[in-house]
Design a protein that fits this description.
This protein has 176 residues and is α+β, with helices and mostly antiparallel strands. It has 2 domains: 36 residues, Single Sheet (N-terminal domain of TfIIb), CATH 2.20.25; 101 residues, GMP Synthetase, Chain A, domain 3, CATH 3.30.300.20. Helices cover 34% and strands 24% of the residues. It is built from 4 helices and 6 strands; from the N terminus they run H-E-E-E-H-E-E-H-H-E. Strand 4 and strand 5 form a beta hairpin. The protein starts with a helix and ends with a strand.
């Protein structure tokens, strides 16, 4: 048999000899427009970055950070986003660990999520975005299990899903 003929028939020959492998891919398609609402948070903001936030569980003043030319000394949208993303991610870690059969520590100080939200871009061109760096620190499990939990968490955390494709998120896992 010529080399050309062999190359032409190779895909057919491999397909004939390869065992059929069937996999079922389960895809969940959450319709974000029509799915039932589980919880709604409301906040009222006045004064933008140098203003005030009022909500059911939060009342605080805002200040533009010193690094952006403001007075600093008070919280800002990036800090609030960092806190929200970190808390949501850590809650989703508990669900992911349960689904994977991994036992996370029960002491709160043995599972820490540190989240840094960076305002990035060009202020003059008003071309701005955010980047997230997260450190997930857990005591009492293997690095392999922690990496599995974090990978699964990125799939189920609402903040991770909302920022996917829009925000560069880097996650470092650390065993305490």
């Amino acid at each position: 048999m010529s080399l050309n003929r062999l190359i032409q028939t190779l895909p057919r020959r491999c397909a004939q000899r390869a065992p059929a492998v069937r996999t079922t891919i389960v895809r969940r398609h959450l319709n974000k427009d029509t799915s039932p609402i589980l919880y709604t948070a409301h906040a009222s903001v006045t004064g933008a970055r140098n203003g005030h936030i009022q909500s059911e569980g939060l009342t605080t003043d805002l200040a533009t950070p010193k690094s952006l030319g403001g007075a600093g000394g008070k919280t800002n949208p990036e800090e609030l986003f960092a806190a929200g993303y970190g808390a949501c991610f850590q809650s989703a870690m508990n669900i992911a660990a349960s689904q994977l059969g991994v036992k996370l520590p029960t002491k709160t100080q043995d599972s820490i999520v540190e989240t840094a939200v960076h305002l990035i871009g060009d202020m003059k061109a008003v071309d701005l975005g955010i980047r997230v760096d997260m450190k997930v620190k857990v005591k009492g499990i293997s690095k392999e299990d922690l990496d599995k939990v974090v990978a699964k968490t990125k799939e189920i955390c609402p903040y991770s899903k909302a920022t996917q494709g829009n925000v560069s998120t880097n996650i470092e896992t650390i065993i305490l």
